[in-house]
Amino acid sequence: MATYWVTEVIPLSMTAMLPAILFPMFGIMKSSGVAKEYFKDFHFLLVGVICLATSIEKWGLHRRIALRLVTMVGVNPAWLMLGFMSGCAFLSMWVQNTSAVMMVMPIVEAVLQQILKAEEVGCAGEDNPNLQLDGTWAAVCPPAAPSRSKQDLMVCKAMCIGIAYSSNIGGITTLPGTSPNLIFSEYLNQIYPQCNCINFGNWLLLCLPISVIMLLLTWMWLYWLFIGSDFRFLWRCGGEQSEREKAARKVIEDEYKSLGPMSSQEIFTAVVFLVMVLLWLTRSPGFMPGWASLFPHHLGFITDATVALLLGLLFFIVPAYGPSRKYEAMISWREFQASMPWKVALLVGGGFALAEGTKESGLSLWVAELLTPLGDLPVLATITVACIIVTTVTEVASNVATITIFLPILSPLAEAIHVNPLYVLIPTTLCTSFSFLLPVSNPSNAVVFGYGHISIMDMVKAGLGVNVIGVLAVLFAVATWGGPLFSLDTYPDWAPVLPGFNSTTP
User: DSSP letters of 274-320?
Assistant: First the structure.
């Protein structure tokens, strides 16, 4: 399955069906037992989050958020880039990374086309009244237009690559932000049912600083790589704006004004979004009793998926317009279906079935015994090697396939070297999202590449630096504030103690 997922000889989701065929045939699990693995709590959470994302996109809330952030930071190319990257990162915390890029990239394209005026008749000079906000992938001007100065092209490259990378960086911040995080969370529930240490709140506490560090360093790296090494703009304030900056400001202000006041649909979507986040944060925060403790007789029954589904359901019930118009819900089933990543849902199900099969057949125990010699290495060295391997593989395989392949290998590794499984699994899960090198590495990169401003070599050069930044930021996090947050330095009582290890071993 790992080979098929990496090479994609057949569609990823059909490879995920192999356990349903082979496990019953080889007497590993009953067909009914395998089938249960294909639909988990993860899928309910995904459905609820996609309902919210569909409404955000349908009613244009993403444009308002992105444009507002950009107007706050200014229109100097460097600050403009940071504004767009921050907007995209924030959106991808709550919606799928690809959706975030498809929401932000047309706005970026509109601004670029207005401020990077080319002299040739075919390539600029003309206003763009629609501001390219219809989501078309083709760029209005090819990057090779000879009339554009090198500086213009470099600004284009930096801005576009920044959008692709910031979606991945923002996605790691929350559990529903990207599929690998959700898969990791569900895998923990499945393999270590007694482990209740991962929730929305403490994941945010761990990953928000990582994202902020990565976003700022990536922004500076891209600025240095493509635009220049003059960072004096960081402490220079005020001054006369250039014509180009005035043009950019006008485009952004005009577009923000064209949105008009917030519609009732946007307000409702924003309120549901805030309530969802608030309920996730306070369900079971760990340092105090959450609202889930109001149901003492049903401890552990309510999860983040319950919240997401309940609020997602509201979008199909609440009318979009007042009583003066024919009833129409906030979103329709057709709109939801268009946004729902069914391929990911099936692929993840196959991963859960594979994980259960490795446990049932005894393969995971065999792998654990095989990996025991790694216990002689320092723990951080083992984790660093695992992070580098995962980061390399995820460049050629999809993020979802990579995490699905490595979780059943890495958790027995942690047990074999008697290390808290979270110490190994959390950093490698985060590194699964660091697919920055190629357009095919993930759909976000492909969407941005489709606009035609960047070459593959641009992405490879930029991606190598961002990969290093990402791995170092993650290792720094787990070695510092991650330790006390998840008690990473102690072997937990919810993980099995393998033969050969005394339970009192530190």
Answer: HHHHHHHHHHS-SSS--GGGG-GGGTTT--HHHHHHHHHHHHHHSBS
